[in-house]
């Protein structure tokens, strides 16, 4: 079930157990292969790997399901990013890159595949009150990156805390939509009563 963690600027949701353990295992296997390949190709800088979803049925199923939950059409060009971080590592604060202005990055869908033993929380320091999200395997965290005028929402600035025990593996889909679709999605997700009632 979706849980709203923050209402506006940015709108943040969490869905515990969005994917079951069997699917998590399948996605971890894909991620391990792709991350190891990236590490070999780029001489050890295998912290992330961008993978077209159409290349694996499990990835295509995931992006299709997320799109369905959000009332979007399936994206045949969806690309997901696997990331792997170890004890002592963190991700510095940032706003997710917008990229192509014709396809605004309207939302970020972050799926935890392997949760660290401790640390590694995703934090949004500029919301009031500040928000810290602890991850569990299979949990999906989703947030909007733009406001109703399609301006980048700087309060979506976030970071990943230092991992103090274990390893963290995530898979992220950066959801891009044309202007009309982006505006419709923002309106739908910020009208949380209507959106959550249909998911």
| Ends distance | 8 Å
Helix content: 25-40%
> Approximately how much beta-strand content do the residues carry?
25-35%
- N-to-C SSE series? EEHEHEEEEEEEEEEHH
Q: Provide the residue-averaged pLDDT.
A: 87
Secondary-structure content class:
alpha+beta
State the major sheet. Answer: 7 strands, antiparallel
The number of distinct β-strands equals 13
Number of helices: 4
**Strand order of the main beta sheet, please?**
1-2-10-6-13-4-3
Low-confidence stretches: none
Tell me, briefly, the overall form. Answer: globular
Work out the radius of gyration. 16 Å
Gist?
This protein has 4 helices and 13 strands. By secondary structure, it is an alpha+beta fold.
Q: How is this fold's topology laid out?
A:
Elements: E1 2-6, E2 12-15, H1 21-41, E3 48-52, H2 57-69, E4 79-86, E5 91-94, E6 105-114, E7 118-119, E8 122-124, E9 131-133, E10 140-144, E11 158-160, E12 163-165, E13 167-176, H3 179-190, H4 192-197
Antiparallel strand pairs: 1-2, 2-10, 3-4, 4-13, 5-11, 6-10, 6-13, 7-12, 8-9, 8-11
Task: Walk me through this protein's architecture.
With 199 residues, the chain is of the alpha+beta class. The protein is built from four helices and 13 strands. A hairpin with a 5-residue loop joins β1 (2-6) and β2 (12-15). It is globular. The relative contact order is 0.23.
Using brief descriptors, characterize the structure shown.
alpha+beta; 33% strand; 4 helices; seven-stranded antiparallel sheet; 26% helix; 199 residues
């Amino acid at each position: 079930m979706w849980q709203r963690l923050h209402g506006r600027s940015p709108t943040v949701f969490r869905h515990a157990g969005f994917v079951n353990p069997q699917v998590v295992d399948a996605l971890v296997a894909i991620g391990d292969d792709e991350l190891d390949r990236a590490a070999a190709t780029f001489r050890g800088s295998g912290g992330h790997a961008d993978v077209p979803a159409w290349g694996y049925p499990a990835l295509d199923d995931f992006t299709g399901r997320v799109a369905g939950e959000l009332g979007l059409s399936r994206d045949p060009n969806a690309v997901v990013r696997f990331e792997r971080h170890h004890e002592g590592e963190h991700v510095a604060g940032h706003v997710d890159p917008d990229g192509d202005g014709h396809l605004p990055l309207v939302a970020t869908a972050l799926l935890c595949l392997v949760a660290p033993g401790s640390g590694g929380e995703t934090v949004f320091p500029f919301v009031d009150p500040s928000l810290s999200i602890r991850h569990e395997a299979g949990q999906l965290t989703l947030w909007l990156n733009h406001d109703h005028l399609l301006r980048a929402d700087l309060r979506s600035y976030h970071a990943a805390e230092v991992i103090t025990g274990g390893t963290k593996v995530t898979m992220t889909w950066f959801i891009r939509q044309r202007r009309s679709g982006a505006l419709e999605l923002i309106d739908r997700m910020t009208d949380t009563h209507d959106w959550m009632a249909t998911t």
